[in-house]
Specification:
Elements lengths: L2 H6 L15 E10 L2 E11 L5 E4 L6 H9 L6 E6 L2 H4 L5 E4 L10 H11 L7 H12 L14 H13 L5 E5 L7 H15 L4 E6 L2 H7 L2 E6 L2 E7 H6 L4 H7 L6
Parallel strand pairs: 3-7, 3-8, 5-6, 6-7
Antiparallel strand pairs: 1-2, 1-4, 8-9
Helix pairs in contact: 4-5, 4-6, 5-6, 6-7
Bound molecules: adenosine-5'-triphosphate and magnesium ion.
Adenosine-5'-triphosphate (ATP) binds next to α2.
Length: about 260
Amino acid sequence: MTESAVSRAQPTPTRTTRPSLLPLVLDGVSFTAGRQTLLNDVNLAFNAGALSVVLGPNGAGKTLLIKLCHGLLRPAAGSVNWSDPAAARRPDAQAMVFQRPVLLRRSVAGNILYALRVGRVKRAQRPARLQEALALAGLSAMAARPARVLSGGEQQRLALARAWALHPQVLFLDEPTANLDPAATRRVEEMVGSIRSTGTKIIMSTHDLGQARRLADEIVFLHQGSVVETGEAAAFFERPLTQTAAAFLDGRLLW
Ligand SMILES: Nc1ncnc2c1ncn2[C@@H]1O[C@H](COP(=O)(O)OP(=O)(O)OP(=O)(O)O)[C@@H](O)[C@H]1O
Ligand SMILES: [Mg+2]
């Protein structure tokens, strides 16, 4: 499968007739473990459209923040508010791809079909959704292969395709290219770009500056459990407002 096979696979736009979940507003969110405060008084609003990147060094709290947003963790203080809380609980509302995704002991296609079934996608729609997701990931030729024999990059594309097959309004990606080489990283980034173009809101974390520069419309810069800076991506990279962000951009940040 060539590089261009991924970019040629154009997914259909997500329907916009569903009630909008966004904005997602975090109001004074903290998270603690024992006596340790791991996230401290996070106030953020994620709006529709822009691809939001949570950027920060290892241990900054990116995974915790994404899990709190997706509802996998409860804040010790503050609240995580969707504009339509009932809609946010629907199976096709939001999906997440983990830093280390777990694939089922099934074929590539079987992994996607399982997600479609659990996500209550109508049976008649499943074959088309499956083909679309496989094409988006550049995995059509590998549909029958056991998922666990795929390379790391292919597995990550499958995890992304499986999440996107539900056509979620919001897709959380936690370090989607950690442990991938530059070529595999590029292919995942192309896929993220294709998903973004369907209108799916993407909120992703990374510690990779190059990736943030390539993908982000807006940045949430996290350091030691606090949001240090937020803003439009180009402005953040050109003129960071804080010394901490400037140090991170220069590779001088110690943590
Ligand atoms: N359940 C927990 N109990 C105690 N400490 C935790 C728990 N979960 C996370 N931490 C700590 O909170 C901090 C932030 O963790 P988190 O996984 O969110 O960082 P991260 O920014 O995603 O880092 P990385 O880039 O390495 O993935 C880390 O110091 C981690 O050890
Ligand atoms: Mg993490």
